[in-house]
Amino acid sequence: MTFTTRPEIMGTFGTATSTHWIASAVGMAILEKGGNAFDAGVAMGFVLNVVEPHLNGPLGDMPALVRRAGEDAPTVICGQGVAPAKASIAHYRAEGLSMIPGSGLLATVVPGAFDGWMLILRDWGTMTLRDVLEPAIHYAEAGHPMLPRVAATIAGLVDFFRDEWPTSATVWLPGGKAPEAGQLFRNPDLAATWRRLLAEAEAATGREAQIEAARVAFYKGFIAETIDRYLAEAEVMDAAGARRKGVLSADDMAAWQATAEPPVSADYHGWTVWKPGFWSQGPTLLQSLRLLDCTDIADLGDQPAAFAHLVAETMKLSFADREAYYGDPLHTKIPADTLLSRAYADARRGLIGQTASRDQRPGEIAGFDAQAQAAIARAGRRPETPSGAGAGEPTMAHLTERRGDTVHLDVIDRWGNMISATPSGGWLQSSPVVPGLGMPLNSRAQMFWLEEGLPTSLAPGRRPRTTLSPSMAEGHGTQLAFGTPGGDQQDQWQLIFFLRLVHQTANLQAAIDAPLFHTAHFQASFYPRGTRPGHLMVEPSLGEAAIADLRARGHEVEVAEPWTIGRLTAAARGANGMLRAAATPRLMQAYAIGR
Q1: What does each C-alpha distance from 32 to 37, 39, 479, 592 come to in angstroms?
Q2: Cα 80 to Cα 259: distance, rounded to the nearest angstrom
Q3: Which of 14, 157, 237, 238 allows an S-S link to 101, with CB 3.0 to 4.6 Å?
Q4: pLDDT, tens digit (0-9, with 9 covering 90-100), for 168-190
């Protein structure tokens, strides 16, 4: 019997898994009360804002996959807001910037997460707004145990908050000092915001009318107005080391809504895998599966070095294409059909050699030559050195406590409804708290480049190409929802998990517990947007012999601390209705619950 750090949860009633045990417990409680998977997911999302504020917030962003029982494919919910109307390259250049800072007010796009949750609740859920908001209000008002990593993040920013972001000091420094790990921590301003929103929403009659009223209050009412008033005057320090004003306005918020759209997909060894579109990095996982489809990957389960080498070299090719070709399909032409085609993968597969590549190698696609060359040139630049508040997502396992990250959740209910969501942004270290609201703005605009003619050029109304990337799959009688936080690592860790599940073990927990690795070889999505050619970070559990083998193949191997790479969670439903779930033991926060 395979040893796992935790049991693979099994049952038939329902399962909820996420990156924090409190959120998972709340999701299960919603299922117990008769809610469906979508109700549970929304409630969990709001609780994660409260208990992991260094990883996500209500003014952040959120893509999700939702799938009703019996549907052939999931639907993508795009809770990714767009660049404000005044967010032009010319304006940012006039501010003395060559790159968008990783924190501060110019890094902000329209907050998308809230409307994404409301769209799910209205069209897929069954419960009222009060039902799904009350748990978050409780933990914000009555308090929750402060995570050690949140405490450490705040402790590292005490002087910065006091000197530069006093509105953040009001919320994150109760009594004028950093909270201690394990301390009961409250955010009364956030609780008051949600109570006011509920009061305004419940002035309407009926579940859907109340949800619509909440959307109005958030994007056209008191929340948008409060943000607008603050940004009209605020001028705060950012990661580029200067005090600058933002460009987001109430008009930007009023003009935007979350949307539902079809996923992109690929088939692999009897499975179909679904991801958000090319405004996310999700298709890199699909491209990687195409490249691996005609290799010996299925036979490398007992050869960890060969497995890691093949997967790493595959991901380098997929992520090179991400940098060259991905962007918002509503604003730029994406060669999507080519990128996901078997013929394209067949032509690229021969680039995978026996030694580690140190080159950036996007594919050659007719009509897109300039984009490929521009991506190669960008990757060769020396990145700027941050001098302000760092707030990009961590790209290494040795997490710097001052950087933000992400959360994830997966839920399946007894009827077979499923949700997989990856909320992020609005971290406590990304932007100052909007006074009176108890929540900071997001910093997703740092995904854009301040150069014209790219699929990721900054432009008003354009979605940043986000790293957020939930997943669903189906094959051999099993339906699967899975994902992880981790910025550029999300579709690396998810690929490794999925390959192990398909080729090495059917046990979700075993696939999550197995040694993880990732590369920072390609262009980072987060400020200061660097590259580390040939880099490969591995967990020591891969084994000394495998690590030596990888070094002999030319990889710049960085050995992580034990049990520090990846924060995967997953849930599955078999053809017989049996539900299974698992969560990573890494960082000692994630938890799966079910019965």
Answers
A1: 11, 11, 22, 15
A2: 9
A3: 238
A4: 999 999 999 999 999 999 999 99
